[in-house]
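agent> call fold_tool(seq_1)
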Amino acid sequence: MIKKQMIISGEFADKEEKIDVIYPYNLQKIGEVPKGSIEDVDKAVEKAKIGLEKLKRLSAYEKYDVLLKVANLLKDKKEEFAKTIVLETGKTIREARVEVDRAVNTITLSAEEAKRISGEYVHIDGSPNGKGKKGFYFREPAGIVAAITPFNFPVNLTAHKIAPSIAAGCPFILKPSEKTPLSPIMLCELFLEAGVPKEAVSVIPGFADVGQRMTTHPDVRVVSFTGSLKVGEIIAKQAGLKKIVMELGSNSAVIVDKSADLEKAAKKCVIGGFALAGQVCISVQRVLVHQDVADQFEELMKQEALKLKFGDPMEEDTDVGPVISINEVDRIHTWIAEAVQKGATVKVGGMSCAEDKTVFQPTIISDIPEDTKLFYEEAFAPVVAVKRFKDIDEAINLVNKTNYGLQVGIFSNDYKNIIKVIHNVDVGGVIINDIPTFRADNMPYGGVKGSGIGREGPKFAIEDYTEIKVVVFDVDA
């Protein structure tokens, strides 16, 4: 049993009321944390004001140094964190180790960016009334950051919010997913151990009331949220005059052109579709394949999917673990049934495992109709839907025929088609000859339309966590 306390301004606090943490694979309780409240948020915000002043007094090197210490502490505890991630999320142990490695990199990148926050000389005299004036601008911490994270990457997505926050000089208040609060608390313990001012670090596990107070509190300046479109829209309406960064998911598409390397595309699509049981914002959900090569491609993809081992995520050779809950299994069954009723065909999988109730078989569905949830909503499941197209214009139209726009992948050796896709798809990222599931932690990551606002990646997050201050000198005075 893993028991953790919440952190309010660097101080550990317990509560009588608890949140149970359930292992998705066997549905057994594996840990617990205190259930936070609105009052806890208010306490954290008041102390965070002290944290803001302390962070402002740190030099760029001092922020770099403390974050590098966090990264090294995390690296030393890789296996402990990986096993905790498995118990919370159900992702495989191999996937969990990769997540820890990525979080180490994310924090290291944030440390490096702490030394690169800069400004620019401005030619004030480039304006008619600017004669005799010289100026520049620089960036200052925006203020207190409210960070809300999802269950699927509890360490790395937390790192993507709180490490750039400290690099920018901003205290943070974190609300992790109520399903996965253990590893985020463990990570924040490392921030304190490394020497981050204690008033700058708060972690409050809780539910919607905690999140609402964090995002609407008048003294919170930045809201960084990763989660569903529905909740994102609520936050945007309620937050008021704050800086908002949101990554709200997708139903990412892959275009497989007739000139593509089909074997490579099939292998990549299976990896991208079934990693973390499909519970990734940029998971391969829709594969749009040219009609001339569709039969061959579907067979290649089917054979790749059949190689996957699904089941116990702690076993070293497991490829696909459970989804997060029984409710999700029921929802996935419903969405597949709708697609089949409307004319789709299940090629592989299509059902959960009787012996492992939360493990859903890797599933490939062919001829997916456009009016099904598996086409236009976010599945967040180990399900890949395939649809055929006749030319690149139709493929682009199908990519855009959704409210989401995070990333898209295209497999093609046709230069003109690639360029056409780059310029015409409504997404935040286009990945050429690879899947949309690709993400490097230093790249600008985010989407358009219902997929969010702003960009993550330490350098780009810091832009949202800082404000520009301009300075103008009258040199003729």
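agent> call fold_tool(seq_2)
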Amino acid sequence: MRLKKTLALLALVLGSNALQAETIRIAIGTQDTTINCATGGLLIRELKLLEKYLPKDGKYKDAKYEIVWKNFTSGPPLTNEMVADKLDIGSMADFPGALNAAAFKKAGKKSVFITALSGSPQGSGNGLVVPIDSPVTSLAALKGKSISVPFGSTAHSMLLRALKAQGLDPEKDVNLVSQSPEVGGSALQSHKIDAHANFVPFAELFPYRGFARKIYDGAQANAPTFHGTLVNNDYAKKYPEIVVAFLRAAIEADRLITAEPEKYSEQIAKTTGIEAEVNYLFHGPLGLQTRDFTFKPEYRTALKTAIETLALLKRNDVPLTADELIDDSYLRTAFKLSGLDYDKQLKSYGRLPLVAKDAQSGAAIKDFNRVTQVWIEGEPRVRNYASPESALFAVRDAEKTGKKVRVVLVHDRQTGLKLLANLAWFVRSPNGQIDAYLERDVADKAAQKVGGSVVNFASTFASTAPVASR
């Protein structure tokens, strides 16, 4: 009898301990093909960085973790699963992030942005493309035409503002159609639409693949944009240490890709199928966007604009403010634990720096306005040149020796935007200087001013373009 009592007591104790050994779910929604989110999803998952930072002491001493990853192509379906408590953390842009917060609020709950991942205070990243053989060279020329865009995306918000800035009524002067990136790409190739607006990386990816040409960049609207990570606020309050662990993993992912952008651009390509050259366009030094985790005032403005746009579209009827959508307390803790100064970074607006020598002359590059980068197949690192004139010899020599040039990247002389050189317009001045431009009209004006001529990539760099040609 005494033995039975002892065994029963032991079973009760063991059962109590088993209850204390909680299994904690960490369900994370990613957008792998939205490549500027890589440091908040894809790289953390593929490199198993989250596991390194998960707490293992205190109240988490006996905890077990169930890490769940789920990939999405856009923000709205990710939001649906977050609101349904199937996901705890998710990454998306400012506009769908505002939709996320609105959906949570309608459900009597709350979600908050805990970090930015990548963005542009000017708005670069969103863009508008037309078929490669289209005569259209400006947004204004699309009056009366069909334009597709993923409705509810940050590109949708950008397009509405850009059209209005051109004096075009989105409801009367153009025919807007909702299409995902995949459908929009096919529609461009079959000429079923006249233009397609999209978020990262499609305004660069489609031109890189040779069937589209970019005619408008979000930076021209000077409308800030960013992608970041949201969390279910109840989850964050219950497990703040896990949220901080996720952010520390993101910070490490950022450090890794900063040190070796080519290597991890290849990693992203292997996982997503999006070419490494396009990944490097965003993640390499002087990239199209800046990987900056801090909540710049411009990012708060982006959220404010997103909320206002939601109201105009009659997509939200609950009160929202940008400040209630952001909680940077977890990020500040993660920065401190990672040896970083949050307030110092908050004030910094520099692009990812380039520390390099001109591959032709060997001189240190100090002026970055005309930097040109060349990636040769078989070479692990991108070559850097101080100017297009310096780089063109490398491209010609590579072709002569039978080497394939993977990509040439230049900077728009007016805006500083990084461009695919094979789809840029170049102004050749009488003194031999070559400058790149995104827009043909702007290039024409620049050429007239200096008495130069406008030429394309093939006639500037080589007899045949090494990547997708115009």
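agent> summarizing second result for user.
The CA atoms of residues 426 and 436 lie 5 Å apart. The chain has three domains: 2-121+225-346, 127-221, 372-461.
agent> awaiting next instruction.
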